[in-house]
Design a protein that fits this description.
Layout lengths: L7 E3 L5 H14 L3 E2 L3 E2 L2 E2 L3 H4 E2 L1 E5 L6 H18 L11 E6 L4 E5 L16 E8 L3 E2 L2 E3 L13 E5 L6 E3 L2 E3 L2 E8 L1
Antiparallel strand pairs: 1-12, 2-6, 3-4, 5-8, 6-7, 7-15, 8-13, 9-12, 9-15, 10-14, 11-13
């Protein structure tokens, strides 16, 4: 197997209509915060060099949570049919990411113990749903440029949360990019 065989894409994780509804609702009603990178000592002083996006966390009591969980669950259930040693215990709350013009996330890995007030535990996999792609730029790129998945409204991707699966979001040149992510513990 090649490393990219562990990155699975899903053309229809959720419907494009649901993606539009989620963006419309949370763009207006969400309590958005500037995203940051954390270290074991707290917020990294280099956050602005590492990420430029806004984030909003969607929890169980929030609108669209169940519909989005169904989308994430479908992808993860399919993923573990192939990668049978993964036994999901829990999904973290869903982070909605908004990258406007100039927004980016530098190359990193998701092998974290805790972040943003999340529960403790190392994630097995990361799952992303693309709500809206930027008009230009904003692509997610894996494994130092080795793999760029198809990214359309409502599509998704699942990949291991470890050192072998570095990824980044290229700078948005034009438009806005919205995505959702969760870690599966």
């Amino acid at each position: 197997m090649q490393i990219t065989d562990y990155i699975h894409t899903y053309p229809f994780a959720i419907s494009p209509n649901l993606a539009d509804e989620v963006i419309t609702h949370y763009h207006t009603n969400g309590q958005w915060n500037q995203s940051s990178f954390s270290t074991n000592e707290g917020i990294s002083p280099r956050s602005k060099e590492r990420v430029d996006m806004k984030e909003y966390w969607i929890n169980k009591q929030d609108k669209f949570y169940e519909e989005l969980k169904t989308g994430f669950r479908g992808m993860v259930d399919d993923y573990i049919k192939t990668h049978t040693k993964i036994i999901p215990q829990n999904f973290t709350p869903f982070r909605m990411n908004h990258y406007s013009k100039g927004g980016f996330m530098k190359n990193h890995i998701d092998n974290i113990h805790h972040s943003h007030g999340q529960q403790y535990g190392y994630p097995h996999v990361t799952a992303l749903i693309f709500l809206q792609t930027a008009d230009e730029g904003g692509e997610i790129v894996f494994c130092d440029g080795e793999y760029i998945p198809e990214q359309t409204k409502g599509s998704g991707v699942v990949f291991p949360s470890n050192f072998m699966f570095s990824h980044e979001v290229k700078k948005v040149i034009k438009g806005d990019r919205y995505s959702l992510m969760t870690w599966i513990l």
